[in-house]
Amino acid sequence: MIFNIAAAAEFSRRARANGKKVVFTNGCFDIIHSGHIKLLREAKAMGDILIVGINASSSVSAIKPGRPINGFTDRALVINALKSVDAVCGFKEKTPLKLIRKIRPDVLVKGGDWKASTIVGAPFVKSYGGIVKIVKLKKNRSTTALINKIIKL
Fold it and tell me: What is the model's pTM?
């Protein structure tokens, strides 16, 4: 399901009301590779419901010049089609803090290129008893590396 922020918050609230553990992760997910799949599978294994926040195209451009390669709708449709993902929600800001505050995940997951102290939303999630988990990255897998490899062809 692809939600707006209000619908994602309601989806999360209902899941928790039914005793489900809600997990959240986010990213640009521009060109999907096996590192993304690993992250999403491991995130899903940490709970019952996985909600994925995806940066709007304007947000990606603000943090990664020349990107995204794929527009928001394409990125959201691809992520939404994955078995491990229960819902997708876009966000326009540079960070997903507003979305995290609305969803109130039980588990906040990020890739190993992040340090717990720099994860946006971590203090908020911890403030109500949620946990923050970091998934080890799959070696030599990144969208930037893929783009650079393609450029060299």
Answer: 0.91
pLDDT 10s digits, 42-101? 999 999 999 999 999 999 988 888 889 999 999 999 999 999 999 999 999 989 999 999
Query: What's the mean pLDDT when you consider all of the chain?
Result: 92
Q: What is 18-76 written as a DSSP string?
A: TTPPEEEEEE---S--HHHHHHHHHHHTTSSEEEEEEE-HHHHHHHSTT--SS-HHHHH
Which domains are seen in the chain, by residue range? 2-152 (3.40.50.620)
Let me know: does 88 contact 121? Beta carbons within 8 Å: no
